[in-house]
Amino acid sequence: MHEFDTLDGAILVDKPAGPTSHDVVDEIRRQFQIKKVGHCGTLDPNATGLLVIVLGRGTKLSEKLMSSDKVYEGTVKFGETTASYDADGELVASLPVPPTTLAELNELAAGFVGDQMQMPPMVSAIKQGGVPLYKLARKGVEVVREPRFIHVYSFKFSSYEEPFGRFRVACTKGTYVRSLAHDLGEKLGCGAHLATLRRVVAGKFDVANATPFEDLLALGKAEFEKRVIPFLKLV
User: What is the per-residue pLDDT for 134?
Assistant: First the structure.
């Protein structure tokens, strides 16, 4: 068996709002001159938090690591529906928010716990005929999407001050949290969208152990290597 290189493995990045997951991969590849770099699960540009970056032979484990469960924290803004189900999208409807308590909100959120078929948003990276849906959406094309099987372990709000609710959700891979926000708004009767999102856990990895992206780029190669989780610890 070949000896593993110090750069065969994974590194945990705390992604800021702004760059795409692909931007993070490109910067790391360029800055540290690593040929093979990938990520395990896309975060939207405005989402922050844990991005598991695989390096060298660690890229062979990306499918395995991508299939792990996730935990997110964020805020939902009630009363406003957007085309993309998040704050980036065009506002399509605005309605008054009915008087609601935190307990009532959690009662509605509890209805999303368990196995379900979820309709992906039109603005998403899922491909149809080789074209990502978001590219079709930009042209004003709406296509029939296939619902996907997901499981939500827990969905709970910790605070609510109209129109914003703060939540934490644990779910399987492929769950669109912005779809949960949108569907919850429909249930409440006033619409809603995902205002902020942060991934805090992916499988056995926690954002508490991740390095902020800017800090990572400022490291020398030796310091960078010290933060790499070796291949054999990922298997």
Answer: 66
Pairing of strands 114-118, 148-161: antiparallel
Q: 3-class SS at 48?
A: strand
For residue 89, what pLDDT band results from cuts at 50, 70 and 90? confident
Q: How far apart are CA 230 and CA 55, in angstroms?
A: 10
Element (H, E) at 170: strand 164-171
Domains (range + CATH), the chain: 9-67+203-234 (3.30.2350.10), 70-201 (3.30.2350.10)
44 is catalytic: yes
pLDDT band at 144 (very low <50, low <70, confident <90, very high): confident
User: For 2-17, how does the pLDDT look when each residue is reduced to its tens digit (9 = 90+)?
Assistant: 678 889 999 999 999 9
Q: What is the pTM assigned to this prediction?
A: 0.93
* d(C-alpha 91, C-alpha 87), whole Å: 9
Please state the separation of Cα 2 from the chain's center in Å.
Answer: 34
Is-contact 61 235, C-beta < 8 A?
Answer: yes
Which amino acid belongs to residue 31? Q
Reduce the DSSP state of residue 12 to 3 states and report it.
strand
Residue among 180, 67, 173 nearest 113 (CA): 180
CA distance 47 to 137: 20
**Residue from 5, 14, 23, 44 carrying the catalytic annotation:** 44
